[in-house]
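Posted in: Protein Modeling Q&A

I'm a second-year student putting together a small comparison for a lab meeting, and my supervisor asked me to include a predicted structure for DUF3142 domain-containing protein. I've never done this before, so apologies if this is the wrong subforum. The sequence is pasted below exactly as I got it from our records. If anyone can share the structure token output, I'd also love a short note on what stands out.
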Amino acid sequence: MPRPRSLLLCLLALLMLRVDSSASGRPPVHPTLAALPAELVWAWERPEDLRWLPAGVGVAYVASTVLLRGEQALAYRRAAPLLLAPGAARVPVLHVDMSWRQPPALSETQSRRVADELLRLAGRANRQVVQLDFEVRRSQRPFLARTIGAIRARLDPAIALSVTALASWCLDDYWLHDTAADEVVPMAFRMGGEQHALRARLLQQRGFTRARCGAAIGFSTDEPMIAVSEARHYYFSPQAWSAARWQAVRSAPRSSIPTRP
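Accepted answer (user: helix_wrangler)
Welcome! Here is the predicted structure, written out as tokens:
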């Protein structure tokens, strides 16, 4: 738990940022997000040795998964080994899956279980940032919104809450304007049958322009990347990370013309 003085300073910083944001029309930037690395790799649930990463690159790693099934909310802690250099920026990620065979009830008990698990992970965040990875159908959005709100209400104010989002949620299907998350990370990959048109649009806009979606973006190593204005980049790899794979990411051109498959 933070000391009273440090908590007070954090609250004052948040208040100042909110005043500045209101004047500029931008959403507030949480102080810990301002200090987070501009580049992070996503480390999924598989063995990863990332001790070779440059010092200025952070790691957002799946630390736990919650499966919502029927009335159940089953939590599974990370089993795959993860090796990081001492002092590397760590952002624990809670991944939430929903059963298709036994659709979840989306009850308050399940929402609370998700919140409990994410709050447990917050103690592992050495940069005071945690992330929720939770994709839902349109009819399930109210549940996700309530869960994000419940997490933010219970989370220490000194810790920032980041959430991933489908690209469509930050384009024409935008519904995150009232989200309680401190950071939204739209994933500019796996965008479906309209991906070429969406890439062209994102390129023209230089990224996502919705108010809650313009600070961070997610890319995948197996899809073309585009030049964007978002300051923070997260990178997903469908295969285990290696120094060579990271170097390929760093040297990959950011397309000025979308590439067709």
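A couple of things worth pointing out for your meeting: The chain has one domain: 28-251. The first strand starts at residue 39 and ends at 43.
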